[in-house]
Amino acid sequence: MHILTVDSLSYTYPGATAPALSGVSLDVDEGDYIAIVGANGSGKSTLLRCLNGLLAPPTGTVSVCGNDPATVAGQAAARRSMSLVFQSPQDQIVASVVEEDVAFGLENLGVPRLQMRTRVAEALDAVGLLGERTRAPRFLSAGQQQRLAVAGALAMGSRLVAFDEATSMIDPVGRTDVLALVDGLVARGITVIHVTHDMDEAARARRVAVLSGGRLVFVGSPADLFASDRLSEYRLVRPRSYTAALALGLEPLAGEGAAELGRRAAGILGASAHAVANAAKLLPGRDVGPTEDVDGGPEAGGQPAFSLSDVSMSYLRGTASERMAVDRVTMDVARGSVVALVGRTGSGKSSLLQILDGLALPDSGTAISFGVDTADPRADLRTVRMRAPLAVQRPESAIFEVYAGDEAAFGPRNQGLSGDLLVGRVRGAMDAVGLPFDEYRDVPARTLSGGRKRRLAIASILSLAPEALLLDEPTSALDPASRAEILDMIRVYAAGGKTVVMSTHSMDEAALADAVAVMDDGAVVAFGPPARIFGADWNPLWGIDRPFSWELDAAIAAGFATTAGTGGSR
Length: 570
What we know:
Elements: E1 2-11, E2 21-29, E3 33-38, H1 44-51, E4 62-64, H2 72-81, E5 82-85, H3 98-108, H4 113-126, H5 142-156, E6 160-164, H6 172-187, E7 191-195, H7 199-202, E8 207-212, E9 215-220, H8 222-226, H9 240-247, H10 258-269, H11 273-280, E10 306-315, E11 323-333, E12 338-343, H12 349-357, E13 364-369, E14 372-373, H13 381-387, E15 390-391, H14 404-414, H15 419-432, H16 437-440, H17 450-462, E16 468-472, H18 480-495, E17 499-503, H19 507-510, E18 515-520, E19 523-528, H20 530-533, H21 548-565
């Protein structure tokens, strides 16, 4: 039985010259689990918004549980049947207290108070936010806000739940928890639609639908999609386990994780597992640079780009809601190096980046940015911020110009540039992040997809020609090809002797940096080259994963030990 039907759906945004969706037809059965993938701007979020009437689809093109969201009555009924977890969680947070936000939908449905309290507590506990139930949502980290949005959907008990990149800002452990929640929904017969740029997540679904240029170009099993030779055309890649299995000479299995693949490799190949383990070291993610600490960059041995000495900072200091964000951090960032900040959601990564930029000042300790003490009353913080600008985690919150070209030009204009010099600077920055200047300069910035807004935010600081880039989750919400392009841009930028400090929840990305700083409860608990952080110094209590190939290597070794202990191959 179809719980959702889409029939020849087309949608064009007001003022746009091309449709965001064109002739999309799709049926989803009760209890199905379907992933929707595609490049940034391919129409994924637009499709979800048409399903529940946030955008007005043409009458008769969408049916949700038999209701047409293009009509007033059908829209209300569709929204009772379908919950949508947005890509940007702040777009759906409406209350000033966490538990009240989760209860908002239940109150509108007239759920009895006692039942409401139970469902709210269960939903918050499921996403790991029960301890934050009385806090204000605005004081939650971006990842915690995303979990709050998921809790609101879980509490509603909808027949269909749609996730729009709901794991994009959550730490690895939190992502695992949310994906387990998704599995639980499916096990209970709830239909799940999961929009994602993560191919490992897409591989977990029963079916995958691919959008390209607003058109539906593929619907089928994950195995069929990843066997296709058209993935690069769709700006997609194969899951890491799929690629690793091929490299190890094994049959790829869609949805397989590093641990499962490692055990399978050791079990099938038996005594050859040592050779397989050595082969695993050659997979992407193991080329992590030196194992010893490096001074880094062309100015090694000179003054560091950033120097923190016993820095602490708290929010709402002196109030009952005071919370420590950065706790006694001492760390030097060498000029010309790339440093990755990792840690569970809410560990202090964004706050530390704001201190480096001078947007936040330490309560105690000393923060030096290119020789300037940011807490010194005489410090020119405007110059500090232009010298080492920050691309914030939510780029849409920082975009204020009407057109994309003007947004990227705002910084260099304030540096005094004009005419051909200004145009050249903006063109170079927009081209570098994959927003070609000639194509995007006159595009209204607010009409860009979430991923393209993220690129524009990076272009807006790159156009300052800074000495350092501070990037807060720069690849979050980007399709695989765009993610690779941004990482390439970072590598090219750093190769010119510039400094990069970036937060990331991707350990595969962190492994590409010169150094990794692990944060936990506001403190830097480990700092060093990736090979040491993910090797000899590794601590599972940090609440993060290791890069995929490291996890695979460990699983192969463990599987071989088990095989050897039982007297050979199984």
